[in-house]
Specification:
Two copies of one chain form a homodimer. In chain A, strand 2 and strand 3 form a beta hairpin. A three-stranded antiparallel β-sheet of chain A has the order 1-3-2. By secondary structure, chain A is mostly helical. Chain A has two domains: 68 residues, Winged helix-like DNA-binding domain superfamily/Winged helix DNA-binding domain (Arc Repressor Mutant, subunit A, Orthogonal Bundle), CATH 1.10.10; 34 residues, no CATH class. At the A-B interface, helix 1, helix 2, strand 1, strand 2 and strand 3 of A face helix 1, helix 2, strand 1, strand 3 and helix 5 of B. The structure holds a DNA duplex.
DNA sequence: CGAATACTGAGCCACAAGGCTAAGTTAATC
DNA sequence: GATTAACTTAGCCTTGTGGCTCAGTATTCG
């Protein structure tokens, strides 16, 4: 369950829709597949993908495979975004300085703001 | 700037690393590329991908192209996750009801929910 | 038992993704 | 004015992704 897979799972409308549906409760594969104009084997690939990337759990009983949404990957995804936001917001003030400082604009394109004369 | 592309952009370690780096300030393409063992044209594809999916803005001045992170796609991604979370949490109580209601359990195929980690 | 249901497995196909090299182009330096 | 630096364009190659069909297998139902 690496970040690559976690995000890739979200990069497809079918898979996002499945997660959306599962958000309101468990469902069997064919129930989930019903809204989509897609052959079952194709659809199953999406289910397996979601499962192997930690977005859902599935469990077969009889001939029916039931899918349940799982919070794990969800948290991983949110954590990454949240870290990113923290980083970005942590330097917003310095960015503003950069944008409005004509010297920096002309000079090197990106002095990268190396830990400025911190207070 | 559709969800497909927004999430796909995050499904690659190089692109996530670039966003991470840009989180602490603007940089030129070659500065960004420097840590990666990759030919420049390959790297540029990542930059273009991030740009065309709204994760960064770029601007060329002289022969240097400077990249700046952008909040737009970020918000879109967080919004989707947040909606998803709302949905999921909004029905946790009902889920609980579902799990503990023997009638529902027989009725539909889905009860799966492998033993809640409770008590 | 036989038929229908709900997947499952194997294999094919077209196209997108991510990497490369080689050869431009444009701006800055010497 | 020639070099060098910083991209850019073009084209190739391999692998992955998302779709399909056709033929199983395993359960459930009549």
């Amino acid at each position: 369950m690496n970040l690559d897979g976690v995000f890739q799972a979200l990069a497809d409308p079918t898979r996002r829709a499945v997660l959306g549906r599962l958000g309101s409760g468990p469902a069997s594969v064919s129930e989930l597949a019903q809204p989509f104009d897609m052959a079952l084997p194709s659809f199953m690939k999406h289910i397996r993908f979601l499962e192997s990337n930690g977005w859902i759990r599935t469990h077969k009983s009889g001939r029916i495979r039931t899918c349940v949404i799982e919070k794990a990957s969800f948290d991983v995804a949110e954590a990454w975004l949240s870290d990113q936001r923290a980083l970005w917001e942590g330097r917003t003030d310095r960015l503003e300085q950069f944008v409005t400082n004509p010297y920096l604009k002309e000079d090197r394109a990106c002095p990268a703001l190396p830990t400025p004369p911190s207070t």
